[in-house]
């Protein structure tokens, strides 16, 4: 056990976060996200965090790594498809609040990728973590910053 490390971060997740350099990207896929497929296609690491919500994992990760300050939007979410335009996505507000607690830019640190662009970028990431998050459109990508 370690002091000050959120207990939901498994040894594999902690090791992965330590291995990542600035500019590397980690994806938190919701329970519906085809994470294993994109990790295999892109040759990136794939980890599971079954039973852990996307909000809890995002908060825990941002407790131990900073968002990249060299890019305008280091946190990217999956944009809704046109057919879901009227659908409310309350988890986005939760993600915004979590990011604001850890990054002075708040909501300005968050951007959106169109669904298929999100998939494409996920395959290029350092790691995809499949969470137990059941909310839809709850996929989030974080670009790691420099630890000073």
UniProtKB/TrEMBL annotation:
Sequence intervals crossing the membrane: none
The keyword ATP-binding is annotated on this UniProt entry: no
Gene3D superfamilies listed in its UniProt record: RbsD-like domain (3.40.1650.10)
This protein's UniProt keywords: Isomerase
GO BP terms in the entry: fucose metabolic process
UniProt keyword annotation of Cell membrane present: no
InterPro entries in the cross-refs: RbsD-like_sf, RbsD/FucU_mutarotase, RbsD_FucU
MF annotations from Gene Ontology: D-ribose pyranase activity; fucose binding; L-fucose mutarotase activity
Catalysed reaction equations from the record: beta-D-ribopyranose = beta-D-ribofuranose; alpha-L-fucose = beta-L-fucose
UniProt protein name: L-fucose isomerase
Species, as recorded: Flexilinea flocculi
């Amino acid at each position: 056990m370690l002091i000050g490390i959120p207990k939901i971060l498994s040894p594999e997740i902690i090791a992965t976060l330590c291995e990542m350099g600035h500019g590397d990207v980690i994806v938190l896929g919701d329970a519906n996200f085809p994470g294993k497929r994109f990790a295999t296609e892109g040759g990136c690491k794939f980890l599971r965090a079954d039973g852990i919500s996307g909000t809890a994992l995002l908060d825990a990760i941002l407790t131990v790594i900073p968002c990249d300050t060299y890019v305008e939007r280091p946190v990217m979410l999956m944009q809704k498809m046109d057919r879901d335009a009227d659908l409310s996505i309350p988890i986005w507000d939760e993600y915004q609040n979590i990011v604001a607690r850890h990054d002075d830019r708040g909501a300005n640190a968050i951007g959106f990728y169109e669904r298929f662009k999100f998939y494409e970028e996920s395959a290029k990431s350092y790691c995809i973590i499949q969470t137990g998050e059941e909310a839809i459109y709850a996929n989030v990508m974080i670009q790691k910053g420099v630890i000073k």
